[in-house]
Amino acid sequence: MSESDEGKQFGYIMELIEKGKVTIKNIERELICPACKELFTHPLILPCQHSICHKCVKEILFFTLEDSFTDAGSESSNQSSPRIRIHSPSMDRIERVARSGWKRNSLTPRTTIFPCPGCRNDIDLGERGINGLFRNFTLETIVERYRQAARAATAIMCDLCKPPPQESTKSCMDCSASYCNECFKIHHPWGTVKAQHEYVGPTTNFRPKILMCPEHEMERVNMYCEICRRPVCHLCKLGGSHANHKVTTMSSAYKTLKEKLSKDIDYLISKESQVKGQISELSLLMKETQCNGERAKEEASHNFDKLFDVLQERRSSALRAIDASKNLRLEKLQTQIEEYQGLLENNGLVGYAQEVLKETDQSCFVQTAKQLHVRIQKATESLKSFRPAAQASFEDFVLDTAKQEETLGDLSFYSSGLDVPEINEEQSRMYNKALISWEQPGKAELADTYILEYRKLNREEENAMWQETEVCNRSKVISDLDNNSSYAFRVRGYKGSICSPWSREVILHTPPAPVYSFLFDDKCGYNQERLVLNARRNSVESRAGFPLLLGAERIQVGCYVTLDYIIGDTGITKGKHFWAFRVESYSYLVKVGVASSAKIQEWFHNPRDVTSPRYEQDSGHDSGSEDTCFESSQPFTLVTLGMKKFFIPKAPTAPKDSANRILPMPSCIGICLDYDKGKVGFYDADHMKCLYERQVDCSGTMYPAFALMGSAGIHLEEAITAKYLEYPDDV
């Protein structure tokens, strides 16, 4: 087949690929020769493990050497072979070739040195030259399967028919020829040796059945050198260049390499969603780079227009600089997207590797798999340490037009001075909504606007899409977040066309259930002498009261004070709810939890004489007895807080050592009641971490319950709103 016919066939194949008619898809990048940019033809494996067409090796070698003794930079040297697309050799390479002793008129150079089209490294083939290279049969087979996918309209004709030839129906691997049915019967009659020949479907790829050693042409490779990482024959091991090298059997090398390659391919396939997410992120980054580049151009044009007469030349220069930077970044990002697309299943590198795994010949597989395994490992490392190839910010392309006219000749880009904003984790909080606040550190100029981005952290989807919102101040309320979920937040500042880098990501957790809103009840059982409510009824404090002070003369020993209860003004009869509150650090003893309406009536309608010594707090007749009632579900559950500690109630699952049941009191405490399942949990609301959980009898209406003793204070967590209501703060 002539070179022009081959080019037409390749063009037809590529046309079928674009129309989606080829069955082997998305791996064409791996099947293209880096020199001629066409499908491989008789590919050879170079010492650097890249493959290249046999014809291309000869052309590159001799044209490179020819150019080394002519003008290295002349255009005519590059036009001598339209098939090859390589750079001109460097002067140091020319000198090395000249020192190797090659003569201009000799057909075979003593030392063959040429640049690899794939990695641009110098390749020295040694004295054997091209004859010392392995033929990549695995790659050749994959290319042939690729070609066959496009041969629905390009039939292989019989090689022995008289004109006009008939379409072939089979090809003989021993005869290296294709036959129609009639010619096959004539040339392979029954009862002859040829009748035992191996035949396949119509093909033009007649590869040898076995892989032979390039140094000992009559010997078959049957071992694998672990030092040189290539197949060798027994003569290479006995007295050749691999005599002192460690070798292993071909079957062992085949098994080891196939297991490693399969494992790494499975890992990449399992990370397909991550690769797609990173490709999407790169695509968005490209759009953002495009947008910011255009905005930078517009602002630069506006500034130059103010002084157009004297700045025309500098304006053109600056716009070219912006375009060059933008195009360079877009090119890098596009290249990175193409590289990552090769990591998808049935695409590029992974698709090529999957085709290699179909190779059953151990020798052919081993010679191809090692270099492929190295590429797979590099792709895996790149996936783990993902980083965009270019930044979208154009902060170095802002023009300073404040200088005097005589200094315009030195006009240049200057930095915007925008520092990275920092999200204030103390001021940011998550409750019924998310309130995110940030600061601009240092004395840098404040941004005009900010972009706040957030995304849900989902184990099933490692790279969820970012959602963004534009903010004109330095705080934002985010609504419609899912319960019992984690969200990542980040922010960046914009001033004109310039943007700062992204802030450090901050992760916040939403409550395990919808937030339940209520206020303290100032009617049911509320003791005005010992409990004080603020006007908004969201804060309560306890005080001793006059009855206790008047009866203090009779107090000698023991505890003569009781718990004062207060409940929420709204009950719960179904569903799952969450509420949070803060307990003052000075509080002596506070009990918090839930209680049924019947239990609350019992507490409020059995008043106790706090001045009477007949009532003992530790006698088991008070509300503290719930700690011993863990065997059965009770219509109430309270936990004890005080002296900056959180006390886990006694239970079979609780630690036996009392010291292990004492935790530091969180600054914000949350309670989650699942009425339908009869379960209540106590949380560190700042981190949404469950500290204690138990069953509770929800047979009636359940109320948030609180009890205070001694000096103590409780403040209900306020719901996050876009605008806070004003209340008088007097008591």
From TrEMBL:
It is found in: Cytoplasm, Cytoskeleton. Pfam families: ANCHR-like_BBOX, COS, zf-B_box, zf-RING_UBOX. Keywords: Coiled coil, Cytoplasm, Cytoskeleton, Metal-binding, Microtubule, Repeat, Transferase, Ubl conjugation pathway, Zinc, Zinc-finger. Residues 208-250 form the B box-type domain. InterPro entries: B30.2/SPRY, B30.2/SPRY_sf, Bbox_C, ConA-like_dom_sf, COS_domain, E3_ligase_FN3/SPRY, FN3_dom, FN3_sf. It comes from the Eukaryota. Residues 357-414 form the COS domain. The keyword Repeat applies. Residues 498-729 form the B30.2/SPRY domain. One of its GO terms (molecular function) is ubiquitin-protein transferase activity. Residues 33-85 form the RING-type domain. One of its GO terms (biological process) is acrosome reaction. PANTHER family: E3 UBIQUITIN-PROTEIN LIGASE TRIM36 (PTHR24099:SF18), E3 UBIQUITIN-PROTEIN LIGASE TRIM36-RELATED (PTHR24099). Belongs to the TRIM/RBCC family. This is E3 ubiquitin-protein ligase TRIM36.
